[in-house]
Write a structure and sequence with these properties.
The chain is mainly beta and about 700 residues long. The chain has 3 domains: about 25 residues; about 280 residues, 6 Propeller (Neuraminidase); about 325 residues, membrane protein fhac: a member of the omp85/tpsb transporter family (Porin, Beta Barrel), CATH 2.40.160.50. The chain is built from 3 helices and 43 strands. The strands form 8 sheets. It has a 17-stranded antiparallel beta sheet that branches. Strand 10 and strand 11 form a beta hairpin. The longest helix is centred in the first third of the chain and has 17 residues. About 0% of the residues have low confidence.
């Protein structure tokens, strides 16, 4: 940066911060708005009901996006969850709104919903329709909205169906290479004002006659957008937002008869999405500050508009109205040979990052690195990792690949690593292949796994009471299922709400026809606590293996984590007893219970110059763990416990790879006095 610009990146950044602070802190002349909310980040879709209740939407890093109501005393209450969307419109005791939902396990589609203000019941009106921007007509029965189609976004209407009725939609206006956005009914229900944008053309506010579908251009601009029109109660003017003067969006008023446009300076910067109160005395709109977007208000008619002549307010006379039937400007045709080339993933599959890692478990230390890659369409994904293990002085490694072009997802992997086992070691080599069937919605996800594997475990324990040197080979089929409603947010230190469940079963066959069945299950839940973004997290997990000894699996109940909650039926499938080594509690059956209180400490949100390291959050946790491993007889007196605390750092490496670094201390209680007292540990990732 210094070579090119003469100043370092740090100097340029500080200059940018200073200029931004001055610009935001300086109130523009004529700005008379009153701030109504303090959510920050993203606030959208203000709408009044006929009795004057004000509803709007919020999306920020403190919780799931939601639809809210602002009471007359300034307080705000949660109405229902709403995953993004453009518009909320009241009618006949209902709120009609759009939001996004998964169609399949990848694509997000917009659809229309209703929410009863009285009963709180939410109902889906359309499914996979790509419908958005709903506005309810004055009769409370008809909804105008937009529908995204290939090469266009059309204007359509529907009549609100009965509780068990189907939606009957009708296209109102459809034009090639044209998008309609933010339609609004006139007070008499005969006309719709809507933004129209044609390829290569200007941004326009047009009026659509509902009876015959004719379109009249009201105002247009070639150097900015005109958005979110709103009729005044008498139907003679439309308030809209525009950035036509080269600055941020602000509000304008256009006369429906003459097309004269007047800027409303009193609205301040960033003003958009106006909504008039039922008595016409107040306009509420979305505005901008250093905190992000919030709701603001002005008395209506605006003092600035009324007190000053149109000319001195920068009023704009009607823009030249383009011929609605004129040919649409189109982009130049692509050169011959530029189209039709078949897709190939190879140019984008090369790895573009690497992440170092460090693991410590008892006397074992692993230093290594991981990398991976995926193609532009996300069809091919792979991950590679390798680590040098001390004191055994060998490389542990793994490679995994998934093919996700179709449903289900296909995957394969191979690994070779050594873990501590009792007083010796176990070397595990495994290859796996299978299919994953994902089901995904915005508020929950579920997966079903079917896989086959072949593995070889070499047990070596010369110092055991009975020396062991044996190899166990098995071929196995696995079937697993999980379900999760757990959710975390931008400022979360872990998942904050919801629950998750995992179950996997393995049927294995070894040498000589020996068989065994292994099962591992886990349930975890998260509950918000005090202060903001603090969490109480609980986890219960168990594993068991039955059958011939030569094929049965061993499970560890101990170790300091992390536990990611995947489809694992190996030695470390469930173990989490912080302060104990992973080989301290190993047997054919294992069970653990973990309870954490997690809390944020600081959010530095800082990096170090241009180094690829960014410190996001510092947080802590107090924990209580209980674990036991046994075979035939469960001995309650032998249950181990640990209690302690953790300090964690959420960082981002290379601008794209999030990572949690944790260190902690535990006080261990071991009835057998093998691991009694204090212990320290370090970990990559959250405990669970």
């Amino acid at each position: 940066f210094k070579t090119v610009y003469g100043r370092s990146l740090g100097e340029l950044w500080r200059e940018f911060e200073d200029e931004t602070a001055k610009r935001v802190s300086t109130r523009e002349p004529g700005d008379q708005r009153t701030r109504l909310t303090s959510h920050g980040f993203t606030v959208t879709s203000p709408a009044f009901t006929p009795d004057g209740r004000l509803f709007y939407s919020v999306a920020n890093p403190h919780g799931f996006p939601s639809l809210r109501e602002r009471a007359a005393d300034g307080t705000s209450r949660h109405v229902t969850s709403r995953f993004h969307g453009n518009r909320v419109s009241p009618g006949n005791g209902l709120l009609v709104f759009d939001q996004l939902e998964f169609d399949g396990h990848v694509a997000l589609f917009s659809d229309l919903y209703t929410h009863s203000i009285e009963s709180g019941q939410t109902r889906r009106l359309t499914i996979g329709a790509r419908a958005a921007d709903p506005d309810v007509a004055p009769d409370g029965k008809t909804v105008v909205y937009t529908v995204q189609q290939p090469g266009r976004r059309v204007l359509a209407t529907l009549v609100m169906p009965a509780a068990d009725g189907a939606v009957q939609a009708r296209t109102l206006v459809s034009e090639d290479d044209t998008e309609f956005t933010s339609p609004r009914w006139s007070p008499d229900g005969r006309t719709v004002a809507v933004e129209r944008r044609r390829v290569g053309g200007p941004s326009e506010i047009v009026l659509v006659d509902v009876a015959n579908g004719t379109v009249r251009t009201l105002t247009t601009s070639t150097d900015g957008r005109n958005i979110t029109p709103m009729w005044t109660p008498e139907g003679t003017s439309i308030i809209f937002a525009s950035d036509r003067d080269g600055g941020p969006f602000t509000l304008y008023r256009v006369d429906v008869e003459t097309g004269t446009v007047t800027r409303i300076d009193a609205a301040g910067p960033g003003a958009q999405s106006p909504a008039l109160s039922p008595d016409g005395s107040t306009v509420v709109f979305v505005g901008y500050s250093a905190d992000g977007y919030d709701l603001y208000s002005l008395p209506w008619p605006s003092p600035a508009t009324d007190a000053t002549s149109a000319a001195s307010q920068g009023a704009l006379m009607p823009f030249p109205v383009p011929d609605p039937h004129a040919p649409i400007a189109r982009a130049p045709a692509a050169p011959a040979g530029a189209l039709g080339r078949p897709y190939t993933p190879w140019s984008t599959l090369a790895p573009r990052f690497w992440v170092p890692f460090f693991e410590a478990d008892g006397d074992d230390v692993v230093l290594g690195a991981a990398t991976g890659g995926f193609d532009a369409l996300g069809r091919h994904t792979y991950a590679l990792s390798a680590g040098w293990t001390v004191p055994r002085n060998r490389v542990d490694g793994a490679v995994n690949y998934t093919y996700a072009r179709w449903w289900p997802t296909l995957f394969a992997g191979a690994s070779d690593d050594i873990d501590s086992w009792r007083l010796g070691t176990v070397r595990s080599r495994e290859i796996t292949a299978g299919v994953l069937l994902p089901w995904r919605q915005v508020r929950w996800s579920s997966n079903v796994l079917a896989a086959a594997s072949a593995s070889s475990d070499d047990f070596d324990c010369a110092d055991c009471d009975e020396p062991v040197a044996v190899t166990r080979e098995r071929q196995a089929g696995r079937l697993g299922v999980n379900f999760s409603t757990a959710r975390g947010f931008g400022y979360s230190v872990s998942a904050e709400e919801g629950a998750a469940f995992n179950l996997i079963t393995e049927l294995a066959r070894g040498a000589g026809g020996a068989t065994a069945t292994s099962v591992a299950a886990e349930l975890r839940g998260y509950l918000r606590a005090f202060p903001s973004h603090a969490v109480v997290a609980a986890r219960l997990a168990g594993a068991s293996s039955h059958g011939d000894d030569t094929v049965r699996r061993d499970f560890s109940a101990s170790g300091s984590g992390p536990q990611f909650g995947g489809f694992d039926v190996g030695l470390d499938a469930i173990g989490l007893l912080r302060g104990f080594d992973s080989d301290d509690l190993v047997d054919r059956k294992a069970a653990v219970f973990n309870l954490d209180y997690r809390f944020p400490i600081a959010r530095p949100q800082r990096g170090v110059g241009t180094w690829p390291f960014f410190l996001r959050t510092i947080h802590g946790a107090a924990f209580f763990d209980v674990g036991h491993a046994w075979d035939d007889d469960f001995d309650r007196a032998a249950i181990r416990r640990s209690v302690g605390g953790e300090l964690s750092f959420d960082v981002v490496l290379g601008g794209a790879v999030p990572l949690t670094l944790a260190t902690g201390a535990a006080w261990r209680h071991d009835p057998r006095a093998l691991r009694e007292g204090g212990a320290f540990f370090v970990r990559f990732g959250r405990a669970f």
